[in-house]
Amino acid sequence: MASNYHIGIDLGGTKIEVAVLDSQDKILFRERLFTEAHLGSEHIFDQIHALYSKAVMSIQNKSHTLGLGTPGSISKKTHLLKNSNTLCLNDLPMQALLEDKLVHDIVIENDANCFALAEAKMGAGIGYPSVFGVIMGTGCGGGIVFDGKIRQGPQNISGEWGHMVIDPQGSPCYCGASGCVETFISGGGLEKRIKNTTGNSISAMDFFRIPLKDESLKKIKQDFYVRFGQALANLINILDPDIVVLGGGLSNEGSLYKEGIEEVYKRIFNDVPTTPIVKNILGDSAGVIGAALIGERLTQ
Hints:
Nucleotidyltransferase, domain 5; five-stranded mixed sheet; globular; UDP-N-acetylglucosamine 2-epimerase activity
């Protein structure tokens, strides 16, 4: 029997969010806590449990599905979490641990896939057969949705453009490679570049808002647009999606939709590039909505 309520949990590097959707996909309850990953995996599970308990109380313990979006994905070979930039969670049996702690079946999916699904079904991607969803936040991820369904791939790595190498001489990435997209255009990667170049700590969003007098900072900013263009054009040249939807904190930076898109279009392998590259509609709700939507698999 199908459940009338769907609970989603969005596990991010900075915050964890929970939301409850009804059968019409309307948000009934929403709350968040800081992830505080530096306190370890047990603390993260406790934060998830606290949010989930409040969500269940909001629907008076009624029947529901449960989905969780997380950086990385579950290995089909080991059933352990892999490729997460919340490093303390890698190599853990996330599904077993959470189902034991929450006493409920759960579907776990990559957070960028959740974002892409939400935008495809309820956001900027409505009406487009293929949607590539981009996350530019603490890390850099991506998800592919074809005909309303997530493309996972046989290795659960479909859409992981953040670990496409665009400069082998670039900075080391936690994945073991050097010069990944994530090291250049994620919020975390950009902040590290600023720190390593100038010795100053500037948040990614402040970097775009404050006047830049330092020539080295101006070069970093221009290089950011170039790397964004290089990375996204490579992706478009391979997939040719009907639309690209940007999400994550950096998607709020307006210059991406001018200087950034100009750099992308210079590099697309077509005489007249037409790929729409747009800001998300669902805002920071997209990830948690997508997590709730993937939980619906439990009833299918």
